[in-house]
Amino acid sequence: MLNVNKVLVIGGGIGGMSAAILLRKAGVDVDLVEIDPEWRVYGAGITISGPTLRAFKTVGVLPAIMEQGWCADGATICDANGKQLLEIPTPRVAGPDVPGAGAILRPVLARILSKETLAVGASVRLGTTFTDITPVGDQVKVSFTDGHSGTYDLVIGADGLHSKVRDRIFPDAPKPKYTGQGSWRAVVPRIPGIDGATVFMGVTTKAGVNPVSKDEMYLFCLDKRATNDYIPQEQWPEILAGLLIEFGGPVADIRDNMNADSRILYRPLEAMMMPAPWHSGRVVLLGDTVHATTPHLASGAGIAVEDAVVLVEELSRGGLIEDTLQRYVQRRHARCSLVVNNSLRLGQIEIDGGSNEEHGSLMRDSIIALAAPI
Question: Can you say how many angstroms the Cα of residue 172 is from the centroid of all Cα atoms in its chain?
């Protein structure tokens, strides 16, 4: 039996929605507030690792993801011209009938999760966030920007990389830092023969593709960028095309055929790993709020969903809330640190033009480690 009856989730992203869904299925009353009045999602495609598929299976949305996205086994590492260097196996950790990896358009994934969040009965208020969080005995009183207030047994901060909950509860927590790489994305038509994640290693630029449906795939490109300068959106197509000049093979075909429908996006990569504790009293953090990572291991969203799974598992064990939240962090911290730190190392290898062998070996070892139960 869960040791909470009413929970507030601040943030309607992947981790926040997953927590809300699992809590509602466990019989907990859930309020979810999201500051964006349109509940929009930023991004193109997202690669989904085997462990992430396993976590989504626990949440209950795996069938919809497999139906509306694309799943396949294995990942291929190639040189800039498409010559295969390494094939990395992706274990079927979500079950024998579920491929070891996949991908989906971010807006499609957000739609699946938001639909399920509403279907299970979570109370969702958009265009709203908190103004004050105050402990009151064994509860937390929260005031909101829409004039409402409420009292909760637990508050979950899931409001992302630049979390206001983290700033309020842990004002001395580390801040996200720029990693020296920029991330480019585009959505393009499927190329025959590309059936799963395929990465192409340039000198200091990495490109790759991954199918997100039977008709489309998304292109990703990580480039060495010394400073986190603002890049006007109208410059994105030209800059991305220039970054892909060194590539031949499939990437060259994509570069030469990109157009206004390619939905090009850019963001600088930032990362942060918060030391324990991740809670104070009855306020607890999850997802990018405490472990923002770069996309090198395709695990940022996955470890946020895993946070939600583990948090609800520990709440279901009952007992003192302090003990519950300590167990949650103990189960999560090392695994999330592995993702953040190994992703940063992979990025540094790319920035330095380092060893493709080290890069491939670290990716393979990380995938094996993350296949372990959570």
Answer: 24
